[in-house]
Task: structure prediction
Amino acid sequence: MKLEGEYIFDGPQEDVWELVRDPDVLATALPGTQSLDQVGENEYEGVMNVRIGPVAGVFSGRIVVSDEVPPETCTLTVEGKGKPGFINGTGYVNLIDQGDSTTLMKYDGEIQIGGRLASVGQRLFDTTSKSMIRQGLETLNKALQARIAVKTGGGEVEYKPPSESEFAVAVAKDMAGEALSSSRTTWIAVAVVIVIVIVALILINLGGG
Amino acid sequence: MRHLFDVGVTVNGNRYERTVEPRLLLSDFLRHDLGLTGTHVGCEHGVCGSCTILFDGQPVRSCLMFAVQANGHEILTVEGLGTPEDLHPLQEAFWEAHSVQCGFCTPGILMTLVPFLEENPNPNEDEIRAAISGNLCRCTGYQHIVDGVKLAAQKMSA
Amino acid sequence: MTKKYIGKRIKRSEDPRLLTGEALFVDDVEIPGMLHAAFLRSDYAHAYLKSIDVSAAQAREGVVAVFTAETMGDDWQPGPPLVSPPPTVEDVIFHSRTQVPLVKDKVRHVGEPIAIVIAESRYIAEDAVDDIVVDLEPLDVVVDIEKAMQPDAPLVHDDLDSNLAAHIEQEKGDYAAIREEADLIIKRRIVIDRGAAVAMENRGIVAQWDAKSQRLTVWDTTQAPIAIRNGLAARLDLSEHQVRVIAPFIGGAFGPKMMMFYPEEMLIPWVSIKLDRPIKWIEDRYENFYATTQERGQVHEAEMALTLDGRILGVSDVFLHDSGAYDPYGLTLPLNTQCHMMGPYDIANYYSESKVVFTNKTIVTPVRGAGRPQGIFIVERLLDLAAKELGIDPVEIRKRNLIPPDAFPYEHKIIDQAFAPLIFDSGNYKPVLEKAADMIGYDRFVKDEQPRLRAEGRHVGIGIVPFIETTGVGPYEGARVTVEASGKINVATGVGTQGQGHFTSFAQIVADQLGVDVRDVHLVTGDTAEFHWGTGTFASRGSVVAANAINASAKLVREKILALASKVLEAPEDELELADGVIRVADVPRISISLGELAMLANPLRGAVEPGTEPGLEATAYFGPQYGAIAFGTHAMIVEVDPQTMMIEIKRYVAVEDCGTVINPLIVDGQIHGGVSLGIGNSYYEKLVFDENGQLLNASLMDYLIPTAAEVPRIEIGHEETRSPLNPLGSKGVGEAGAIPVPALFAQAMENALPEYDLEILEAPLSPNRLFELLREKEREL
Result:
């Protein structure tokens, strides 16, 4: 599966680079992350709670950063596995100075998923993962504003990472929004509501059984 | 240390008190804790309808509920519907119309139809098909089930 | 014998228990002290197993044991092959590679079991599965059968040179020569994809080892309890008499429950002995999508040679058949496909070459239809395209090619799935085709109704497809019939039953032979303690092979009854009549004796008996057909397609079947309904979607859609009866027939419904989505 996209950070390239290379900040950007520790110069290990549709569980994973050209590009190799299956992927991140104190982030990558994540969660994987990335990047952007504010002495901007449930609600909204925007008829909206209800019920089920 | 909860439930008119884990599914509770194995489990994700029971009179999928959620409630399973010697008119009609092949999905279909026929004593074919469209059957192609429901409606209104 | 019951719509004796939840299914078995099993299964389709650490799982409270391939020691052995390759055909290549109980070195498909956890409850066992740490080194994956045959493809089995599992060629006449004389050659690439059987009951096994009596009892959702018993005894080093296998009520099977031995089927009894505890394992739906066998994947390069007037001169076909990761079921499926690719037609020249291919997917074994729908799809598609090309009506071109009634027995000079020569025993095909055309109103629809509907802008099409089904193959079945002192009859047979109504249809045969009420005939089946010779319920053979064995034993009992009654009543046998459970002297009805009394006289407690006499009114007999009986039918359908939404409505569905003698029409109708329903799924709703890594993307009933009551139309059934000369009852099988023609029928009717698109449907299954793509492709072309 391919993932690609772009995002504009409201800050200079150097600051964005610093931010995305800081594991503590990254850990807060994706709620559900229980830990993210640096285990080598360019290697991180972490544990994350993931929910993709009806599939929920804890993933443990390893991220390796390579081909680094600060503050512009790097390649991320991710390996994660847990009860719901596995994710392996390689992503390429490019930060482009837009010249107006904003930075364009372009990313693209290939991911391979397996286990329940693929077989039960696949129809929700695409939208969920896109949404998680978007939510994560927005959180990062807020963190960036907070940092810049401290740096420039302009007082503190409050930065509070979203809770896991706030994050989940945002993802669900995104998914419903995506389905609605691509639909031609209203039944899809109804179907989405039904799916969300079923998914909620199944979450309880899978989590229990 | 596992947390346990007390559950008190009335099934087919009998009162049961058990202590269970909160994660225990209602379907497993009925089948394995109470020994009421007529309720079948076909998918464990609420799609096939085999595990349908009546929960306070409403058809629900017992694989999508926890036993603890049934505390204080009233349940009817297929065992409470009739016995081989004294079949419910719907069961009679299913027998006559050959609505049963392997019989695995049958209890869930019966429990779906009992309240349906109460609300729709004289259903047409489309209404019957809509009523059972949430119950999967792989053997019958549904036709003899539809015939069985029509026959039951006749029997029950006679 | 008088036919009081055979041919009658008798309601089923097993139903009251099924209707009230009293029937015993495997998961209903509860034994004190029983432990529960759960499996760690691979998330990868192809990977080396580097290491596995079960210590945390073992330490979990409530866990009794964890086993891996390594800890099984010498007891770890690959499963025995279920069906061996045919010995009678020259130059057959067959590489037997059978499934393993637990992965030892290499994972070959997602869902392959790696470890088994035994715990006090299934909940704890599943918790403990998550505690296992397994290190798998992923390998490149073989998914697509065509890519699997490329020289640089990764190997599913490292010790082979390629992914070729088997190769078989069969030939009749001389296709290459006749091709030169043909007026028209139709050549197409046709693809058929995978589906699942989806019995509503998943698989399950309960095993109980009793150390004191040294006996093993196994409840298994199998179609073949006797073969399971014999195999278990061999593998566990027990006498066959120490093992009892019970296939109780089974919640649908449709083929995959005939597969043996599933890894779980060997492991659960093994663990029970090892731990000296009863063990239960019930497959969940998710496991069912990976660990229970599937079928249908084939890619064909097919061609048909015809004359200008639509006579088929020959058919030639080369196809790849997806076997999945192993090939325990031998060549059954490709042979079935080969045997159906000439359909009901008189075709003198035929060439077929099949290559069976290993892939990193779930194992392939028969699913209701079993290779036959593919064969019918090929011949019918080619014929439809030829009819279009030649401007001949689809029904007419079929009539011109049907095997004529005086040509039976019709020899095809190739071999069938039982390695016997493919001979069509009997048939009268044209009346069945005409009846179907008549019932659906073919001429009127084509002449009047369709033009009118088209003028209204509606897309309504008709299809009509004749087909054959090879049924009732050997080797044999057996039965024992006993008259009890109560006058009731006990019948024991080995086949096992999964909803086909054997309790009733078999009782009808016995009731007619012995002149008793059908309700007084009690049948036991699927319990090796009751009867332990036989093969199983598969290949639409119950009403042929088992039914004739039962008929034969009932006949022997009838002879015993008459012989003894003749002595007791002092009247010649030919003056006696059997009716209502009583033997009477025909002319002097007051001289009579009840069956029960006679049974007691046949089993005296005192007194001398003549040498050579057998006690009781009991007999055991076997039936093995010389070769299979060929059933026949024609299905017709009118379908409306909405080219905006791709939703379809089946407006009429007609199925005319000729399955020889019908024992119980109610049951036969039910079999046809169910078969058609599965066929509809196979045609328009069901497809297992694997990604390029061998991950199944729709492994739940939320995503894998089997037809509901809203998708299956009312099916109008017609019967014709051509008795099979191969068995005394004259019966042929009907279990799979319903499913066989449906994909071909859909393709024909859809093309007919959408004439402006000039569609060529060369694949099955379709889906709304796929039809949308095909129509868009056509729109771009036009």
Remarks:
- The radius of gyration of chain A is 18 Å.
